[in-house]
Amino acid sequence: MGGPVIVPASVLGRNGKTAPSNRVVVGAIGIGPRGRQDLNCFLRQPDVQFVAVADAQAARRETVRRMANRHYGNEDCHKTRDMFEILARDDIDAVLIATGDRWHTLGTVLAAKAGKDVYSEKPCSMTICESQELADTVNRYGRIFQAGTQRRNVDNFQFAAHLAHSGKLGRLHTVHASILRLHEDHNWLPAQPEPNPEEIDWDLWLGPAPWRPYNKSYVQGRWRGYYDFNPGATLPEWGAHTIDLCQWAAKADHTTPVEFEADGQTIHAKYPNGVKLVMRKAGFKGEGDWNVPGTCPVRFEGDAGWVETADHGKLAAHPASLLEGKPKKEMAGTDPIKHVRDFVDCVKSRRQPAANASVTRRAHIACYAAAISWKLGRKVHFDPVKEMFIDDDEANRMRSRARRAPWHA
Amino acid sequence: MNLKRSLLSGLLGLSITGAGIAAEADEQAALKVLASEAGLHEKARACQKLMVTGGPDAVPAMAALLSHEHLSDYARWALEAIEDPAAGEALRSALPKLKGRQLIGVVNSLGVRRDAKAATQLIALVRAPDRGAAEPALAALGLIASPEALKTIHAVLANGPDPLRVPAAHAALAAADHLAGQGDRAAAKKLRAAVAGASVPDYIRTAAKQPAAASAN
Known about the structure:
The complex is a heterodimer.
Chain A: E1 24-29, H1 33-43, E2 48-54, H2 58-72, E3 78-80, H3 83-87, E4 94-97, H4 101-113, E5 117-120, H5 128-140, E6 145-147, H6 155-166, E7 172-179, E8 184-185, H7 202-206, H8 216-219, H9 235-249, E9 259-263, E10 266-270, E11 276-281, E12 298-302, E13 305-309, E14 315-318, H10 337-349, H11 357-376, E15 380-383, E16 388-389, H12 393-397
Chain B: H1 3-12, E1 15-16, H2 27-35, H3 40-53, H4 59-64, H5 71-81, H6 85-94, H7 100-112, H8 119-126, H9 134-144, H10 147-159, H11 162-181, H12 185-196, H13 202-209, H14 213-216
């Protein structure tokens, strides 16, 4: 028989510390400015231990390493260029993926196949087929997935969706999602000499996206708007949030609209139950034909009233009495703190988080179907069960893009 | 953005700011670009346009690019989308001639197309590790899920070399989901049982014991 073993109180979870056995160990893949906001929320969770970062850019991985080490007061955070190092670690439970859009699905699929749970920034896919692949793979491996569509866990958006669900708006007939100006840029920036891969690994940065010559603007974050990197004519940029919220409000998380038609920069869609989805522009600061300030406004209309809200946390409604019981504190719609907490709780409980893979699949598919109708300049009909356009070869061909080799899932 | 670049974009039709790309994505115009001395960018865009409008006439031009360092992947955009059997034939014919990334890319595309006619060649790649495409070939076989493909996946799971056992398990689970969705529950169950009993990490064996992803959605 051995003698008594002295176990530190922190190991047992006393002294305000979470026991290691109850901690979620997290790594990160591709962390830029938005990823650091997410990471900051993970670091603030007492039951999360952040241990490693992989990034194609040396400066970014060093920034994250310092951020984590400063938080924990140690030198333990590991940095690497190779995400497979992180995915191969048995001690890592979950990964935060905040690369550019081009990597989101493949990163999630590779992580799920490595047995990791995933929090991924949005848009989580580049196409309809990637949206399917992401959800199928996450569900196949029983992983917990949370899309970075944090507004599902922001008070004012929740309040508005619950109003729609409560029947207080009467019969819901129209939901409105704000989107950015639809456009696609097919240009390539002028070629510049490729940097040393140890500093910036251009080939890895591109990943599954089609090849083009290096230009430093891309890796400095100015890849948005380019067709090869930013999918769906930029509609999913906000649509991943706002169309997702409309799906939720319309109790349509299990389906998608069945027809889409663009009228200039506005796209009209209709759900199988007749509820209309209107995707229309808002300025970047939320200005435009909306009643509330802030980015990502949404509006839900029934035959007995309407409610509208956006990222500043304000709510507008008619009749005004609908706002009784509204959240007292206004929370920024961009703040992922509650969403990250939801994810961590779900990693531990194995229940499905608010923006799980299945709801994300449908919301993203709705985004891409809408963008395709805009690109084709005509009405398209969509089968939400087969997740294909009906009798429309042109539209169906736009559901997928080949991945650049050697990347494959 | 300078004026020169804006004008150039307009002339080349490379920036889309309004509805209706169908008209600009004309097959013959794209093929003309590919046959010309145009630069990489223009040829890449031509391939992307052919993804939407290309038919059998576009296949030879795409096939000719499959060994190209940068345009091979762009050619696959079109070849994955063109339903005509000529596209599959072009990909299969390219397999023996390719190596490295271009070989892996074509293997991936055959998987995406679920090209059962490619199964024999893909099985040969699984058995030829020196060609460097065994793992993607297994993944493609999982997508194809033909009887011939399943036989190889089962064999690798049971007796295959260690480095291929996990890829075979992933392929088996993908095939099981596909077959369950097609109504072949017996084959799906057999695949899942094989993974559950294989020498692979626990989380994969656990995944094999849960309901198919298709039904989870």
